[in-house]
Sequence to fold (283 residues):
Amino acid sequence: AFIKKYVHPCGDPMEADKSDFLSFCSSFGLPQKHRCVARLRNLMADFSDFLAVATLEQANSGLDVDGIMRLLELCKSMTGGKKSPAMEEASKAICDAIADQVLVFAKEMKKKDDFAVSRSEVPQVESARKCAKDVNAQIKEAILMGCETSHPALSEAKVLATELEVECKSRIALKAQIHAKLQLVRDDKEVEIAGEGGIVEVGSATRMAEGIDDAVKKSVKEGAQKVHEFIKEAEEIAKELRQRDGERKRMKARQERMAKQAADAKKGKKKKNGGEDEEDDED
Fold:
């Protein structure tokens, strides 16, 4: 930008159109190949290489990425965006440093999620989701800064992010499974209360099964795989609850039928006894 300010924009000013002399004068500058311009370009290239080497040394010494990026941008501005071999080497070192920092961040996010899981019995869905999202954001930022997507450190960080995403979906499925198991325990408790020979309220287990169906649908909608083992287990529990309710319905119907038969038999016996009493009175 500095050199451009003092160089004539249309090549050699000696050959420029001077019909609009005021315009010519306002844009007048040194020829593109003037020895002073050439010398200044060489000096800036030399200084840019010097600065690139210094930037590389700073990168190898552990300077933070932001500081290195500022130095590299300064080098590029001095050469109009062109990269010298020294700048290319510095850029590679910077990308390595950025990728390494992303990997460190990914490992820290994995530890953070593990800690959240260790502190609670409730499936930590949001923890895994947020950690995966943050790691992916760091990977994207590193690529925008010039890192290759195939960089070993970024590839390893991506593996950790993917593991967190898979874990998030697994925990969503786990919530449905836990809900299903709680319903099964609740039904077992009702069986215990009913006692031997007692019948649990017909329809109760079916309502629990329907609640499990809703939990499964919600989990799948939030990202859980329909074929996940936890989802399959929840569906099996819902199936078992419906079977239990079917058995209770049959038992209830049988109980009512037997009660009706007993009532009818008692009524018939009473009627028969009444008839015999009338015959005795006639005698």
Notes: Residues 229-282 form the longest helix (54 residues). DSSP finds nine helices and no strands in the chain. The mean pLDDT is 84. The CA atoms of residues 73 and 81 lie 9 Å apart.
